[in-house]
TrEMBL record:
InterPro entries xrefs: AAA+_ATPase (IPR003593), ABC1_TM_dom (IPR011527), ABC1_TM_sf (IPR036640), ABC_transporter-like_ATP-bd (IPR003439), ABC_transporter-like_CS (IPR017871), P-loop_NTPase (IPR027417), Type_1_exporter (IPR039421)
Transmembrane segment boundaries: 200-216, 281-306
Places the protein is found: Cell membrane
Gene Ontology MF terms: ABC-type oligopeptide transporter activity; ATP binding; ATP hydrolysis activity
Full protein name: ABC transporter ATP-binding protein
This protein's record includes keyword Glycoprotein: no
A single cellular component GO annotation: plasma membrane
Organism: Thermosynechococcus vestitus (strain NIES-2133 / IAM M-273 / BP-1)
Cited PANTHER family: ATP-BINDING CASSETTE SUB-FAMILY B MEMBER 10, MITOCHONDRIAL (PTHR43394:SF1), ATP-DEPENDENT PERMEASE MDL1, MITOCHONDRIAL (PTHR43394)
Keyword Transmembrane among record annotations: yes
Membrane topology reported for the UniProt record: Multi-pass membrane protein
Keywords of the record: ATP-binding, Membrane, Nucleotide-binding, Transmembrane, Transmembrane helix, Transport
């Protein structure tokens, strides 16, 4: 049975791909179930066995009504009963055989119930686990523009709520569908074998039930898509508010934010109500259809038994079986509800997984140990989506082992240069080279391993000081971490923390000051020991005394290492080999500190302002 199901799935995939190649190529045009089937072919074996267990369980579960009919015939017919025809003459032998058969059937039914429950639940957990890891891994490969267009709350909703919704359906709904299908096939076969005329009336509601299910499915699908969208917006609101709780408190905006959350929560509630209003009507309508089938079997079967055209045992079997056939169909409403919720979630998860990765990796290896560190920007231009160009034909050269600085007003494109170097975004015009090779040719992971980046927006993970400094350097020892912390002027304050290097810094490092977080970030970059070091406002959050100490350390750290320093404080970069002044996305001046002052241009004006000579 398992192999047959796998074969049918392969055939369905083949036919879809062969007959509708354009449709198969446009994954979003396919029904979510077909997309999930195509995506999950690696689970064919598990699905096959779980399906087989569900079908066998239902077959043995339907056997007791048949045994009741045999028992009635055994009492009524005695020597003409089924067991008598099998050679069991005495009533006691027949009764013992019936009891033994009942024991075997009940045992097998219980065994296969355990088997299918375990198989489906394990499969649901496995698919949930794999999908979440696959979706998260895919998200990690996306460029920064992807995250600018989507909120973290929506992404978290997909990774958690939507994948959990699919898991809940696989946990029970798939088994329910299989067992209802098995029930219809088995009982329909028995009915048509015993009494075709009665079977026709008993099975009459089935087409209407199936038709009603399809209609409900079509009408529920858009309602549950709306539910998932509203859930994503609600999660987005919660994630933003928790992240920005300090700002909310400082502006005493708690009532305002509570009201905004109320709006989003009520929108989610109303969306669910619209879906519930329709889904709740399913079971009562199905019950009316079931009533006709049950009544028909009861009356027509009774007349046939009374007239001798149907055995009493067969009539008893049919009365029991018609209930086993029709009443479980009322659960289709709940199963259909789970299915539609799962398909709405599946569509969001697979849409995420099928979002193309904008920045691909090259295939050329880059060993950090062999990087010379020469960096060139050649006629580089770049613009963020929907905005004016940030960089315009920028050309600059960083000789291997030297330190260059980039200065300019806010929004001039300084940090964008660094993001392009790390390939967080892709160059739109021109190219960037490291050691004479276009960075797009390098393996992306190797490229980023070769660059140490200290951002002005420091991010620390919820963990210990040691874990945050050693992040990205998994083999680092405590001695290595302490050495890096000393170079970053962080060791002294770390020693004063309650547990020293084992102190938990809190989410985003909220238990530390801005200067302390920045020093840990510098220590993290130092420990990485990259051939190319990028300092993006690396001392912007420290006081003057600490800045002076860090500058002394950086003089040692940057020696014989290619360094790109971005700074607003010109005092921190005055000793750079070359300083580039960036304004309006273009390099307007370049030279060392003394040469730029002598030009009395833009840099000279900035220096005068910061030195306090001119009033600002």
């Amino acid at each position: 049975m398992g192999s047959s199901l796998a074969y049918l799935k392969n055939e369905a995939s083949y036919l879809l791909a062969a007959d509708y190649p354009a449709l198969w190529g446009d994954q979003e045009a396919l029904h979510p179930f077909l997309r999930l089937l195509h995506h999950s072919q690696r689970y064919q074996r598990q699905v096959g066995f779980a399906s087989l267990y569900s079908i066998l369980n239902k077959i043995f579960d339907l056997a007791p009504p048949v045994l009741i009919g045999i028992a009635v015939d055994l009492v009524v017919k005695r020597q003409d009963s089924l067991f008598a025809r099998w050679g069991l003459a005495s009533f006691e032998q027949q009764l013992l055989a019936l009891a033994s058969l009942s024991f075997v059937i009940w045992s097998l039914e219980s065994l296969f119930e355990y088997a299918y429950a375990r198989s489906w639940r394990n499969l649901a957990q496995q698919i949930q686990h794999d999908l979440r890891l696959e979706a998260y891994a895919h998200i990690q490969e996306m460029d920064l523009a992807f995250f600018e267009e989507r909120s973290s709350g929506v992404l978290l909703s997909i990774l958690n709520d939507d994948i959990n919704q699919l898991e809940r359906f696989l946990d029970g709904g798939a088994n329910e569908v299989l067992q209802v299908t098995t029930t219809v096939v088995v009982i329909g076969g028995i009915f048509f074998y015993l009494a075709p005329n009665v079977a026709i009336w008993g099975m009459l509601p089935m087409p209407f039930i199936l038709w009603g299910s399809v209609i409900f499915q079509r009408r529920l699908a858009p309602r549950y898509r709306d539910v998932r969208e509203k859930a994503g917006l609600l999660n987005e609101r919660l994630a933003n508010n928790i992240t920005g709780i300090q700002t909310i408190k400082s502006f005493t905006a708690e009532p305002y934010e509570l009201e905004r959350l109320r709006w989003d929560s009520e929108a989610y509630q109303q969306s669910n109500r619209r879906a519930i209003r329709l889904s709740a009507a399913y079971v009562p309508l199905i019950r009316f259809l079931i009533l006709f089938g049950f009544t028909g079997t009861l009356v027509l079967g009774g007349l046939a038994a009374f007239q001798g055209r149907l055995d009493v045992g067969a009539y008893s079997t049919m009365v029991y079986l018609i209930q086993r056939l029709l009443w479980p169909l009322t659960r289709l409403g709940e199963t259909l509800d789970q299915y539609q919720r799962a398909m709405a979630s599946t569509q969001r998860v697979l849409n995420l997984l099928e979002t193309p990765i904008a920045i691909g990796t090259g295939d050329r290896p880059l060993d950090p140990c062999h990087v010379q560190g020469e960096v060139r920007f050649e006629a580089v231009s770049f613009a963020y989506a929907g905005r004016a160009p940030v960089l315009k034909n920028v050309t600059l050269h960083v000789p291997a082992g030297q330190t260059i600085a980039i200065v300019g007003s806010t929004g001039s494109g300084k940090s964008t240069l660094v993001k392009l170097l790390l390939r967080f975004y892709e160059v739109q015009e021109g190219r960037i080279l490291i050691d004479g090779v276009d960075i797009r040719e390098y393996c992306l992971r190797d490229l980023r391993r070769a660059i140490g980046w200290v951002s002005q927006d420091v991010f620390l993970f919820h963990g210990t000081v040691f874990e945050n400094i050693a992040y990205g350097s998994p083999g680092a020892t405590l001695a290595d971490v302490i050495h890096a912390a000393k170079l970053a002027e962080a060791h002294d304050f770390i020693e004063q923390l309650p547990q020293g290097y084992d102190t938990v810094v809190g989410e985003r490092g909220q238990k530390l000051s801005g200067g302390q977080r920045q020093r840990l970030a510098i220590a993290r970059a130092i420990l990485k020991d990259p051939p190319i070091l990028v300092l993006d406002e690396a001392t912007s959050a420290v006081d003057n005394e600490t800045e002076a100490a860090i500058q002394r350390s950086l003089a040692q750290i940057t020696a014989h290492r290619t360094t790109i320093a971005i700074a607003h404080r010109l005092s921190t970069i005055r000793h750079a080999n070359c300083i580039y002044v960036l304004e309006g996305g273009e390099i307007v001046e370049q030279g060392n500190h003394e040469a730029l002052l002598a030009q009395q241009g833009v840099y000279y004006g900035l220096w005068q302002v910061q030195a306090g000579i001119l009033a600002t």
